[in-house]
């Protein structure tokens, strides 16, 4: 369904994308993770034909996006991170407008609008103006506009940011339904649990490159025997307690990669139980009070942290 080959993008003297390549099979659900500034938005712009790559090719459904742009774009639905609706129109009017933009008309347009309203759970609010909707309802209409023309490839960029749990669950189940019906999904999110729930394969992107790609078992194998350890410290002396503890860890093992998040220290080790005992002794010597210690089995969040040494929103 999608082939991205050796995509590079330069802005003046800065290389934003550094030879990104991947492919998606029809009906696959694919997660894309990366901290802010990793190059995700630029990659999306190139895959949708809105940004021209410096080099490389994108093929959608066998169509070269550069040479057959309009035909390829007809196969794409895009759910942008920002709400892209006319707030003074009703939900139905928004869907009618975007349906016409995709070339739908007459009975087919009316049927598609009704089907979409039912799918996003807003058929009973179809004649209400969007400006009275909650954030979650607006995002559901946003999704409706993207799927109205039944795209082969749906790209969703942070579709659940800042919404209520009910709308989030509805959106996740809608994505599941669309995928089960054969729609290929690219899902970009800062919520790891959503990506774990929805996606068969995941790519982790940082500094313009894919640093890992695979299913969750394959990504877990990149961590190997190492396990994430999380120490939460009671910072009676503020940042000084954190700094002294980090110095102790580096003296204990200079090779340890440490990530500090507020009053937490995170690191990886192949023998976490022994390290835990040693670091508790170090805290006692330094008179640093530990509030909790946790050893975490591999999941997307700590795999991401292990590979990038960053929080997802860094």
UniProtKB/TrEMBL annotation:
The ABC transporter domain, residue ranges: 2-232
GO molecular function ontology, one term from the record: ATP binding
Record key words, sorted: ATP-binding, Nucleotide-binding
InterPro entries: AAA+_ATPase (IPR003593), ABC_transporter-like_ATP-bd (IPR003439), ABC_transporter-like_CS (IPR017871), P-loop_NTPase (IPR027417)
Record protein name field: ABC transporter ATP-binding protein
